[in-house]
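ARCHIVE CARD
Drawer: 12
Card no.: 0347
Subject: one protein chain, sequence and derived structure
Cross-reference: see card 0346
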Amino acid sequence: MSAAKFPLGRLVATPNALEHIPNPDIMAALQRHLTGDWGDVDEHDREENELSLKEGFRRLSVYRSVKGVRFWIITEADRSATTVLLPEDY
């Protein structure tokens, strides 16, 4: 396993995300997010996330559950919280 590249802060999830994404999928995605595997983001967002590692900005990762549900993980710039949510929850 790769080492975490940043702290998650407080971990939260929207009720909608908890209803539609199985817990093992959330945990696997959080591990990927922590190690800098940003999932299905475009090249611009990938570059922004890499810059954020250096400059301390917010990070966004995009994943899909085993059932194909697309979801996001966002870590705030101050690392106070990481949120798991569906795009429509934003």
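Annotation on reverse: The longest strand covers residues 59-64. The beta strands are 10-13, 59-64, 70-75, 81-85.
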